[in-house]
Amino acid sequence: MKKILIVFTLLLFTISGISQDKYLTKTGHVTFEASVPSFEEVKATNNSTTVILNIENGQFAALVFVKGFRFKNALMEEHFNENYAESDNYPKANFKGEIIDFDINNINETKTKVYYNGTLEFHGKTKAVSNLPMTIYLSDNNEIVLSGTLKVNVEDFDIDIPKVVSNKVSKQVEIEYNFPLKKK
After folding, report:
1. Kindly report the CA angle at 11 between 5 and 14, in degrees rounded to 5?
2. Which of 74, 115, 181, 184 is the most buried (most CB within 10 A)?
3. Which residue ranges make up each domain of the chain?
4. Matching InterPro entries, A to Z (predicted)?
5. Domain spanning 21-183: which superfamily?
6. C-beta separation of 65 from 50 below 8 A
7. Backbone angles phi and psi of 17, in degrees to 5
8. For the residues of the chain, what is the DSSP string, one character each?
């Protein structure tokens, strides 16, 4: 019985030690825009992105459910899910990355530009990205905030834009993100 108690106590300390090294959100914001001038805005936002950051090594991961993106126009949302993202077949988008030269001791209230590498998986395809900038800082309520933008080409993810609308939708999509992460 004493051995079981010791093992359980060690396991508890190990688990609590691991969780102290992580920051998490389930309400991260991701917005993408594929608009072109003079045509209807092609823009959507997802406010339920899950993101976790390991503060020991700067590794982070984000998970977005594709059907969680909201457009101003319901028909545009339907077309996005059925014809472009094919969200029934590819329900999630993932990003796994690492902040270069990450050091938790350098994070404070000052917004600081850092760089990261990683892979974006969407529509069944994976695209590596490297040396991209993001902003990191500590918010007033002790959240580590990661924010930034990146651009991706729809052809990298085998997304076909029909000729009928090809002049109304950009072939390059700008993704903007803001992840306020709380200590787990």
Report:
1. 145
2. 181
3. 21-183
4. Lipid/polyisoprenoid-bd_YceI, TTHA0802/YceI-like_sf
5. Lipid/polyisoprenoid-binding, YceI-like (2.40.128.110)
6. no
7. -65, -40
8. -HHHHHHHHHHHHHHHHHHTTEEEEEEEEEEEE---TTS---EEEEEEEEEEEETTT-EEEEEEEGGG-EESSHHHHHHIIIIIS-TTT--EEEEEEEETT--GGG-SSS-EEEEEEEEEEETTEEEEEEEEEEEEEE-TTS-EEEEEEEEEEGGGGTPPPPGGGTTTS-SEEEEEEEEEEEE-
Amino acid (one-letter) located at 11: L
Q: What are phi and psi of 21, to 5 degrees?
A: -95, 10
Q: Answer whether 113's CB lies under 8 Å from 134's CB.
A: yes
Among the residue ranges 80-84, 90-94, 133-137, the one predicted with the least confidence is 80-84
- Asked if 24 contacts 49 with a C-beta cutoff of 8 angstroms, the reply is no
Radius of gyration, alpha carbons of the chain: 19
Percent of the chain at pLDDT above 70?
A: 89
Instruction: Please classify residue 16 by burial: count the beta carbons closer than 10 Å to its beta carbon, then call 0-12 exposed, 13-18 middle and 19+ buried.
Output: exposed
